[in-house]
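**User:** Hello, beginner here. Are you able to go through the protein record under this note? It all follows right here:
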Amino acid sequence: MDLSPETILSLFCLTIASLAIIPGLRSGVDDDEALVARCASGDREAFNDLVLKYQKKVFNVAYRFVGDQEEANDLAQEIFAAAYQNLKKFRGDSKFSTWLFQIATNRGKNRFKYLKRRGFFVNKSSQNQDEEGEGYQKVVPDNSSNPENILSSRQIQKVVQDAIDELEPDHKEIVILRDIEGFSYEEIARMLDLPEGTTKSRLHRARMVIKEKLKKVLS
């Protein structure tokens, strides 16, 4: 099977997405509407139900932005707090999940920018390499191996995640929402308030950047 950067990236995204699936996430619109209506009338328990429903998905988005479990936990809490505080602004023009992940994306991008300015990702990358005893980029996959087995290695996953982390924030959010979280172009365009054409072109450019980084590692 082809072990090109395209294949590695596709397998990585499919693996992450499969781990993040919550049954009924896209089909629970009616339940969401009922819960939101109860929240609007002051029912805190209803919001707790929404948190339980989406907490894993929100954490996954947060983690893909910041790449650190502690930071992702803090970010996820911030996202839900912002959603609760702004719930009265939700008019039902889109699905609640779309509105929630719009907040998650905005907060995630802002936190990513903040951490990047502080050198968080550079320091973390150096720390990870020290802990492993060798740089991730020294690991070259055996082309005779099964691609799924190659993908399971921490080194390859780390290389792909590092490539995503190095993207510009506007490109990173597109990759997270489309390739990792599996939102449609229409949903992403609505979340980011962008034309679908712009969404697709940004994703294309982001994928090209990631593939170029992977080529350097796999060559």
